[in-house]
Amino acid sequence: MDRPRVVVVGELMLDLSIAGRGHDARISVRAGGSAANVAVWAAACRARARVISRLGGDLAGTAIRRALEARGVEVDAPTLEGGHTGTFASVDGETRVDRGVAASLLLEEAPGALDAEVVVISAYLDAAAAVAVAREARVPRVAALGRPLDGADAVCLNREEAVRYTGAEPAGAARALGERFRLACVTDSAAGAFAVLDGEPAQIAPGTTAGGDATGAGDAFAAGLLVALARGASLDEALAEGARCGAGCVASADGWPAISSAG
């Protein structure tokens, strides 16, 4: 399938990075959120990408919608006037999150929108809503990011998440999760990625990048992996595509692909 349909359900947020104090502080502002990251990289892989979320009726909501649409992503997110768009802030290395209107996202807000080859569920979606999405989606692949999820048939975790949920290091975690899910993938920046698809294991060594901010690299990796598999690629080929997208995220100034590379 040349252009598989990918639907991502989760949060759209404004990402702030703040370091230093007073007039010597360094502040960056960009569109983000795990769901947004997956969607833009899926679109850059020439998937037909849609994101389901909520946005506030504020400047951040307008900017995020435009940034996604500029990269070929269909935004299925009602604007809630009077509500505010979520914000993720890294302040001198400390994380602060205000989820805004996305905290109460409901499946009912996007009837029929789960028609796709791949549905991806953000790790930060409310647990009850996430399970409802996984069970409602009748698609070839339902992938849960950041946590094992009942109703999904695929899971993508980083090393910290894998240890938290399985008590095992990445390779062992992938094998253990591969007994529960058709597809299990665990990324580890130091060791590459380990995956199991229908009982068959594969791994890829860590790639090289041009430096930069690794925020969102796991989301980009998952997008490349899932789109490639939806096209019929082998697991080895899909892992290589995931690694390419992850490296592209790290090398990018804002963590997203260039507008010209989208769909």
Structural notes for this entry:
- The structure is a single chain.
- With 263 residues, the protein is of the alpha/beta class.
- 31% of the residues lie in helices and 29% in strands.
- The protein contains seven helices and 15 strands.
- The chain has helices at 34-44, 59-70, 127-136, 159-166, 170-178, 217-230, 235-251; strands spanning 5-9, 13-19, 26-32, 48-52, 55-56, 74-76, 79-80, 85-91, 94-100, 118-121, 141-145, 154-158, 183-188, 192-197, 200-204.
- The strands form three sheets. A nine-stranded mixed beta sheet has the order 6-4-1-10-11-12-13-14-15, with helices on both faces.
- A hairpin with a 3-residue loop joins β13 and β14.
- α1 packs across α6 and α6 (217-230) runs antiparallel to α7 (235-251).
- The longest helix has 17 residues, at 235-251.
- The chain is globular, with a radius of gyration of 17 Å.
- Residues 208-212 have low confidence and may be disordered.
| Spatial arrangement of strands, main beta sheet | 6-4-1-10-11-12-13-14-15
Compute the average pLDDT. Answer: 90
Main β-sheet: number of strands, strand sense, barrel status?
A: 9 strands, mixed
Quaternary structure of the protein: single chain
- Compute the gyration radius: what is it? 17 Å
What is the strand tally?
Answer: 15
Shape: globular
Distance between the termini: 14 Å
What are the low-pLDDT stretches, counting only 5+ consecutive residues below 50?
A: 208-212
Q: State the secondary-structure class.
A: alpha/beta
DSSP strand content:
25-35%
Helix fraction?
Answer: 25-40%
Order of helices and strands: EEEHEEHEEEEEHEEHHEEEHH
Please report the number of helical segments. Answer: 7
